[in-house]
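Quiz preparation item.
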């Protein structure tokens, strides 16, 4: 079992309900829990299936250099990358209008 945090934005109510079955919603769109790897993977499958146009980041404690790992779903300027064995966050540049 390991600590799991899921942060959501603009997800459908049915996904909110599914997350609430396994995790505690401590703030609007912020879910936490202590779950097994199998449950974590099942939750992520639900996110992929039901998130639609929403954004989701899932992070969990693990035995790595940083002590955690994470995955993301949806449009977001932040994307996870691997750099020499470390998970880091890279930012897409801001889109600008060139008129």
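Solution:
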């Amino acid at each position: 079992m390991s600590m799991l945090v899921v942060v959501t934005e603009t997800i459908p109510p049915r996904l909110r309900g599914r997350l609430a079955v396994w995790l505690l919603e401590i703030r609007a769109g912020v879910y936490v829990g202590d779950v097994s790897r199998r449950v974590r993977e099942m939750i992520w499958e639900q996110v992929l299936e039901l998130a639609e146009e929403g954004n989701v980041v899932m992070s969990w404690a693990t035995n790595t250099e940083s002590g955690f790992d994470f995955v993301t779903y949806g449009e977001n300027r932040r994307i996870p990358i691997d750099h020499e064995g470390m998970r880091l966050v890279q930012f897409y540049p801001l889109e600008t209008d060139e008129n």
